[in-house]
Known about the structure:
- By secondary structure, this protein is an all-beta fold.
- The strands form five sheets. The chain has a six-stranded mixed beta sheet, with no helix packed on it.
- Helix content is 0%, strand content 44%.
Amino acid sequence: GLLAGVNITSPTPLVRGTAGKAALLSVRYASASADKPVVKWQLKRDKPVTVVQSIGTEIIGNLRPDYRDRIRVLENGSLLISPLQLADEGAYEVEVSITDDTFTGEKTINLTVDIPISKPQVLVASSTVLELSEFFTLNCSHENGTKPTYTWLKDGRPLSNDSRLLLSPDQKILTITRVLMADDDVYSCLVENPISHGRSIPV
């Protein structure tokens, strides 16, 4: 006879979550069997961490303390985590097995967890610019936000290649060397992460 197996599909292999909010790791499974599935979600680490096991939506055993009251398994095998913590970030593997079926279905979903970027401001290290040999630094500062990437804008447009403009490796700090009168431009910084972005008031 034909081998019957569980077929799992997932609409989104990557879920971008916000700390403190909910994330749904969404899967669907298809099986010829009417039995309730055994669902197992693991977080892939050096040693995989079992997040939850359930029969249908009924959780088996006790959840780890850090997951208690934050985890639900839905009818289709999906995992709902709420509220999210930064430590929840990672690759989640789900296995769905049904007694009658010969082999299990597996799927991996990646979850990122971030804190939104708060509005950045540009801090200027030297404001009195008279001599041409002077330089000044602009620091793109913001209180909150994980995994930030920085982009500097001059008059609302990305910086052109100019040997006098030096960026720190993470591009958070812009140094303008050998200041010229023509540098009386408007600079602003843009900070982005997987879930949000913020732009400073121009200086």
